[in-house]
Design brief:
- The complex is a heterodimer of chains A (about 400) and B (about 240).
- Chain A is α+β, with helices and mostly antiparallel strands and about 400 residues long.
- Chain A has 2 domains: about 180 residues, no CATH class; about 180 residues, no CATH class.
- Chain A is built from 13 helices and 10 strands.
- Chain A has a 6-stranded mixed beta barrel.
- In chain A, a hairpin with a 2-residue loop joins strand 2 and strand 3.
- The two termini of chain A are about 30 Å apart.
- Chain B has about 240 residues and is an alpha/beta fold.
- Chain B has a single domain, classed as Rossmann fold, CATH 3.40.50.
- In chain B, helix 3 runs parallel beside helix 5 and helix 4 crosses helix 5.
- The longest helix of chain B has 16 residues.
- Classes of the chains: A alpha+beta (about 400), B alpha/beta (about 240).
- At the A-B interface, helix 1, helix 10, helix 11 and helix 13 of A face helix 2 and helix 3 of B.
- The complex binds adenosine-5'-triphosphate and magnesium ion.
- The site of adenosine-5'-triphosphate (ATP) has 12 residues of chain B, from strand 1, strand 2 and helix 1.
Chain lengths: ~400, ~240
């Protein structure tokens, strides 16, 4: 019986091809845009998650501030209030896994005839642990290198590509940073862009002491621009932030009414808000696309209503020869569902095609998940049933004799 | 010939019109036994079609009782009525009422879909019934491709496909010329000879003469009920 009805629904669809195609078009556009928008949205979420995972987890950056309590403040990172000894003290706090003082700035690198401008990060070996940054070849430098200010460097992938010939091994080579020669002891694993869109691989990491003495120079010995701190867990972060603040205020001998002379930036919170932003964007895209799916559904309802009216006499004849109300209901419902599923299949193909095209044209990250395809498909079938139900019920509720008299 | 296929008692139907209730059928009593061949006659507007639609379970009476093969139709739900229309009654219309976009074979076999018969069996029975009315060579044609007389024979084949004990026909020859009408009536005669009860409405005396019993309606009531053995179709002057 169902097979017969499927056949009939197919037949009915074929009888008025132009109309069926136009009705389907609504579904095609609806499903296509849902799939495409979800692909773009999920792609953005994926890209951000990818970036966040390269950042290192549960991180705080403490930035030196000004010593003034009133009047003009100098911007963050320009004061000299933080000291290497502060970092050592923070390392003693509970729930702190890694601490690394950092002094960084942009400098010109020279190797042979090539030169390249890059970010020089002067720090301690724990920096790599906190940032979960791997060494791709060679090795990292140690505490002893920091103590004796040796001229060794770890260089990022982008630096390797811009200073060395393809295939050339940078290990053991000497590059110059502001006239000072550094021996490359290791290369860094690739990380890609950070949340601000900066290429993290365009980095050279050297011992803090060497950087301060040979590259940047510091007016006060033992001062440092920022300290990176990793908390043991996400749950521990608020308490770690509190104890860092208390510790630094005490070490800097700040009076109770004085402002902090440092800033604490929660990178995990920044990451969360970035992830939240893309999640909302992706939801929004999906919601907008769903509206077109809704419009497609209304199109189906509209055509089915016309079809029921047009075929009133046919319905009467079917009832006169023994069709039950539920047979008529099933027939029209099947027709609506078939139109929407057929439209859905075409829409899926177009949506996926569109997503792949977007990917090749714009380099945008695209994620087509089985879940989103399934959702689009289920929603389309649901739309067919939902919007097909009213016309189908209208058909089934017709009075046989009234339907037969209809001209 | 004693078991009543149809028994109606005080059956009435009033239509709701803009001018109020219009009594089209005013309380009719009639009993039709198995194997009878009844012609219903009467002037236009006398309530014949109204009566047939009630007998065919296409419409519901305003008052009175209708027993079809002994069961009171008034107490039945929509689904039960649909099953009666499918299995017990074959209805033949004046305007044939074939589905225009279906082949003749599919048209004939359509009641089997609602009886839950499998596809292959439907095809076989559809062909068999088309052969029964002499149209097997048109199985795949569309209704618009054949003549009115042929369409009516297809409609009769459709009415017969579930082997119902009762055929109801409202002016089945009304749209046909006299020669084709005779062919259709001959077919009804054969079916009646096979034991199928037939009730048909006609305006024409020579068509009615094929039946063994003539019931005459006037103004929503039965005014005469005459039985006679089936005579060869003789030319009689039309009484009304
Ligand atoms: N749906 C309806 N609504 C209102 N009045 C109706 C309806 N159907 C029939 N009538 C009226 O009921 C009366 C009987 O109609 P019916 O169709 O039964 O007559 P009939 O005997 O079949 O006539 P004919 O020989 O012309 O077919 C007529 O006066 C008609 O106008
Ligand atoms: Mg009539």
């Amino acid at each position: 019986m169902l097979a017969a009805m499927l056949g009939e629904a197919w037949h009915a669809m074929g009888c008025n091809r132009m109309r069926t195609a136009l009705t389907m078009l609504g579904m095609v556009i609806g499903v296509g845009s849902v799939v495409l928008m979800m692909a773009i949205g999920q792609g953005a979420q994926y890209a951000v998650a990818q970036t966040i995972s390269t950042m290192g987890s549960n991180l705080y950056v403490i930035i030196a501030g000004s010593t003034q309590t009133s009047g003009v403040r100098s911007g963050g990172g320009f004061g000299f209030t933080l000291r290497v000894a502060d970092a050592d003290a923070i390392a003693e706090l509970d729930d702190v896994t890694y601490v690394a003082p950092v002094h960084q700035g942009t400098q010109q690198l020279v190797y042979g005839a090539k030169n390249w401008s890059s970010v020089v990060v002067g720090t301690t070996p724990e920096y790599l642990d906190a940032r979960a940054w791997s060494v791709a070849s060679g090795h990292s430098f140690g505490e002893s290198d920091v103590r004796s200010a040796t001229r060794v460097a770890l260089i990022g992938k982008t630096v390797v590509e811009n200073l060395f010939e393809p295939g050339e091994d940078p290990l053991g080579k000497t590059i110059r940073v502001r006239q000072t020669p550094f021996v490359v002891v290791g290369t860094l694993g690739a990380k890609g862009q950070n949340l601000d869109g900066r290429d993290q691989d365009d980095t050279i990491i050297v011992p803090l002491s060497t950087a301060q003495r040979k590259v940047f120079g510091v007016p006060f010995a033992g001062s440092v621009r920022s300290i990176i701190v990793q908390a043991a867990s996400a749950e521990a972060m608020p308490s770690v932030e509190k104890s860092i603040t208390a510790l630094l205020r005490q070490r800097h001998r700040l009076r109770d009414d004085a402002d902090n002379d440092f800033y604490i930036r929660n990178l995990a919170a920044a990451a969360d808000s970035a992830a939240e932003t893309t999640r909302v964007m992706s939801l929004l895209l999906g919601a907008i696309a769903s509206v077109s799916l809704l419009v497609g559904g209304i199109g189906i309802m509209n055509i089915m209503l016309v079809s029921v009216t047009e075929r009133t006499r046919e319905i009467g004849i079917r009832m006169a020869i023994g069709a039950r109300q539920k047979d008529i209901l099933t027939q029209f419902l099947l027709e609506a569902v078939m139109i929407s599923i057929a439209g859905c299949l075409i829409g899926l193909m177009l949506g996926i095609g569109g997503a792949l095209l977007t990917n090749t044209i714009t380099d945008m990250v695209i994620v087509i998940s089985g879940g989103s395809v399934l959702v689009a498909f289920t929603v389309a079938a649901g739309v067919g049933v939902f919007f097909g139900f009213y016309p189908a019920r209208k058909a089934a509720a017709l009075d046989p004799i009234e339907a037969l008299r209809y001209q | 010939m004693n078991e009543a296929v149809i028994r109606v008692a005080g059956l009435g139907k009033s239509y709701v019109t803009a001018a109020g209730l219009f009594p089209a059928l005013k309380g009719v009593d009639l009993s039709i036994a198995r194997g009878e061949f009844v012609a219903i006659m009467g002037p236009s507007g006398s309530g014949k079609s109204t009566f047939m639609n009630l007998l065919g379970c296409l419409d519901t009476p305003t008052f009175g009782d209708y027993f079809l093969t002994g069961r009171n139709v008034a107490h039945m739900g929509n689904d039960e009525l649909a099953v009666l229309r499918n299995r017990t009654i074959g209805f033949v219309f004046q305007g044939f009422n074939l589905l225009p976009r279906m082949s003749l074979e599919d048209n004939v076999a359509l009641p089997l879909v609602y009886a839950g018969v499998a596809r292959e069996a439907r095809r076989a029975k559809g062909r068999e019934m088309l052969a029964r009315v002499g149209l097997e060579s048109y199985a795949m044609s569309l209704p618009a491709r054949i003549s009115g007389g042929q369409q009516q024979r297809v409609a009769i084949a459709r009415a017969l496909i579930n082997r119902p004990p009762l055929i109801l026909a409202d002016e089945p020859t009304g749209n046909l010329d006299s020669h084709t009408s005779e062919e259709i009536m001959a077919l009804f005669g054969e079916l009646n000879d096979e034991g199928i009860t037939i009730v048909l409405v006609t305006h024409e005396a020579d068509i009615a003469a094929h039946a063994k019993r003539q019931v005459r309606f006037f103004d929503g009531l039965i005014v005469s009920d005459v039985r006679h053995d089936r005579a060869p179709p003789a030319r009689m002057p039309a009484p009304c």
